[in-house]
Amino acid sequence: MRVAKVGLAVLLVLVMWSSVVSPVMGKQTKTVTTLDTKNLSPNDLIDTEEIYRYLQNTSKEEVRKKYEEAVIIAKEQYRKAIEKQDKVVKEIVKNRTGFKDDEINTFIKSGYYHSDPTADGGTADSGGSGIGFSKAYTNGNEIHVFSRAWAAGSYWATARVWDEFTYTASDHWNKITVNYYLRGLLFGTFLPPYTGSFSTKIDIYLRVYDHTENKEVVKQKIFSDEVSVIPGSKWHDESRSGYVYAYLKNGHTYTVELIGEVSSQAVLEAVCYSDFSDQQFNGEWRLVNWESDVVEWI
């Protein structure tokens, strides 16, 4: 119990110092710039004694070596996970081309219009090495990703959901928008004697894939935020949107994919995490939630 109180105190002090929402890319329609105790989750209770215990029994040279190895291992894991997820999407769409749910396909005065409030599929992976952990999963429209690292660790998590549709208009340039809700916390700090380094971040991507020609049409980062170098926290609780432009072809089947990724790296007396995954004490979930996509002529 005493350990939990120590960790909670560390978090709350830093949140009061520097809790801000940092709009980087895309559109933001609602902002909450303070994190109250009611917004806390079990992940915010940091076991500082565990970190000290590890560092007291390990030399700095060993810690740095473990950290460097962890970074290399985590990068390779992540690369393979992205390749795997790309294949998963292709296989699912291949087995059910023409899938329909509550999507809208129509022609309006300005041309073609498509929208879908429901994600048609999802896939997730997580990994890392060293001291820390991560997790990722999808649930309907929801993306849940979490990564934490401390002392000597590098961890990541990535998940995506998508809308599958067949483009029925003539070949044309389209603006493709994804609307989503973002709720979660980025946090990083040092512990006495305040040495080491850390970095934790979240990236949101919009990807369009042509399953008829089996090629990626476009993949673009539509939002990014991080806490690194300077101790602090960033709390997000807002609706956002991002868009890309793509030339779509008649009769081709496409997926519009919303991808959420987090990563955390820390070495020596440092701890950080990105939590867009778990349930808070007030019952709300930290997550990236698909709200809808819109495909329209430009």
In terms of topology, how is this protein built?
Layout: H1 2-18, E1 27-28, H2 48-56, H3 60-94, E2 104-108, E3 111-116, E4 121-139, E5 142-166, E6 172-190, E7 197-210, E8 215-228, E9 232-248, E10 253-276, E11 287-297
Output mean pLDDT.
86
- Give the termini distance in whole angstroms: 59 Å
The secondary structure category is: alpha+beta
Shape: elongated
* Major sheet attributes: 11 strands, antiparallel
Count of runs of 4 or more consecutive helical residues:
3
> In terms of per-residue confidence, which ranges show pLDDT below 50 for 5 or more consecutive residues?
1-34
User: How many beta-strand elements?
Assistant: 11
Strand content: over 45%
State the order of secondary-structure elements, H for helix, E for strand.
HEHHEEEEEEEEEE
Number of domains: 1
Radius of gyration: 21 Å
Helix content: 10-25%
